[in-house]
Amino acid sequence: MEAPALYLGLFVLIFLLIFTWRMHRRRLSLPPGPIPLPFVGNLFQGSFLIYESYLKLCKQYGPVFTVWLGNTPVVVLCGYSVVKDALINYSHRFSDRGPLPITARLAKGYGIIGTNGEHWRHTRRFAITTLRNFGMGKRSMEQRVQEEAEHLIKAIEATRSVLADPDCWKTPYDFNPENFLDQNGLFCTHDAWMPFSAGKRICPGEGLARMEVFLFLTALLQKFTIKPANPSDTYDLWTLRRAFRKKGLSYCLSAYPRT
After folding, report:
1. What are the tens digits of pLDDT across the range 188-218?
2. What gap in Å lies between CA 157 and CA 224, rounded to an integer?
3. What's the CA gap between 87 and 54, in Å, rounded?
4. How many helices (H) and strands (E) does the chain have?
């Protein structure tokens, strides 16, 4: 009984040594990062909240580093400058999307989210043309959105209630509108604000979405003061982000008419 157990232990040891040596050889051609464990990689190292771990790893290894999800290496770009460089300056190399089983199962090869190549280019071109025919970028669409905003204001009057790079943001972990104000208190754009991505993969409906969000918010804020329904609630972005990832965003607000 001792000999088979000894052979088995020796086999496992040799297998682990070979596996570790091959993983080490692969690491030499990748950006630096934490040392992975066999089979599990870096899954049990650091915080379970990946974006919190990435900020810590960015400080230790730089804005481009490698983490291992099991036996699969993943190169992470952390920070506005490297993400912009990859999506815009090197879009021909970083515009393709990796395979996502959930997206592939839901889309079944259609759409522009999980597709690549010539099929993606034709579909995206068709989507942009359709949105423009619908009115994106035209004055008529802006007027229609303003009409919808007026209906929303009337509904509220009837009821009376209702990305984080510290190098780019003043307070990246707090809700702070001053991030979008200049020294004179006027609204200003922020290059690091990329909710629609950038480069070739930028959302084709960005123009329509920006116009709708701007018109709706400005129309509401001109008429109402928006406050948490529960005065003890706070705008904790980490909590809201975790809630959104798990079961969607749910937050109660109250609208008070401006006097």
Report:
1. 888 888 878 888 878 888 888 888 888 888 8
2. 9
3. 19
4. 9, 4
Tokens of 159: 């009821």
Q: How far apart are CA 120 and CA 176, in angstroms?
A: 37
The whole-angstrom distance between residue 226's C-alpha and the CA centroid of its chain comes to 26
Quote the pTM value. Answer: 0.58
> How far is residue 77's CA from residue 86's CA, in Å, rounded to a whole number?
9
Q: Phi-psi region for residue 62, left (φ > 0), alpha (ψ -120 to 50) or beta? A: left
- Cβ neighbour number for residue 176 with a 10 Å cutoff: 14
As a whole number of angstroms, the distance between CA 123 and CA 119 comes to 6
Cβ burial of 258 (10 Å; 0-12, 13-18, 19+) is exposed
Please answer whether residues 195 and 128 qualify as being in contact, where contact means their C-beta atoms are separated by less than 8 angstroms: no
